[in-house]
Specification:
The complex is a heterodimer of chains A (114) and B (109). In chain A, 0% of the residues lie in helices and 48% in strands. Chain A has 114 residues and is mainly beta. Chain A is globular and about 40 Å long. The N and C termini of chain A lie far apart (36 Å). Chain B is mainly β and 109 residues long. Helices cover 0% and strands 46% of the residues of chain B. In chain B, the strands form 2 sheets. In chain B, strands 1-9-8-3-4 form a 5-stranded mixed beta sheet, with no helix packed on it. In chain B, strands 2-7-6-5 form a 4-stranded antiparallel beta sheet, with no helix packed on it. The chains are: A mainly beta (114), B mainly beta (109). At the A-B interface, strand 4, strand 5 and strand 10 of A face strand 4 of B.
Chain lengths: 114, 109
Amino acid sequence: NAGVTQTPKFQVLKTGQSMTLQCAQDMNHNSMYWYRQDPGMGLRLIYYSASEGTTDKGEVPNGYNVSRLNKREFSLRLESAAPSQTSVYFCASSVKGARTDTQYFGPGTRLTVL
Amino acid sequence: LAKTTQPISMDSYEGQEVNITCSHNNIATNDYITWYQQFPSQGPRFIIQGYKTKVTNEVASLFIPADRKSSTLSLPRVSLSDTAVYYCLADTGGFKTIFGAGTRLFVKA
């Protein structure tokens, strides 16, 4: 099992460009998440998908859109990148979002917006 | 969602036991306490989870007193490879998990 995979690992964008971050998990988990982590800070939830076919906003959703393509894949799209979106983006998955659920994280995508 | 407070940083030496305390005064009856570990340039990794009293696994122990207003993560005999950021989470009630800034543990030789 590869667990949670993310592509790309690194990306540099110019202000106003768009891009999609890809995430896939092979653990048959129902729930998936997107976080961002700024230098020296904790993780902040952008969007989550409780189950296939549903998505909901997290703490910092502005400037992002998501798609739960199927049970395995959850993508994050930046329509018009801004320097404030320079960050490391982590995707995670969990079995079902229960109180005792453990989240499994991908390796992250380091995004720089110039 | 319960807010947690933990020290910003801690230093230790190899072979010592490290205890990181987390305060969660507003924890709800159904909330669990969960700890994650994050190495540089990696995503967080689950360490341990508990509800009350003591939980132990191959990596750490978690002590939770009866009032559940705080908890302590105990790492026995740390090594250099335990240098990481440790996050305490209270309320793993599904989806809107809140990671604070965590505690940066630096283990010295």
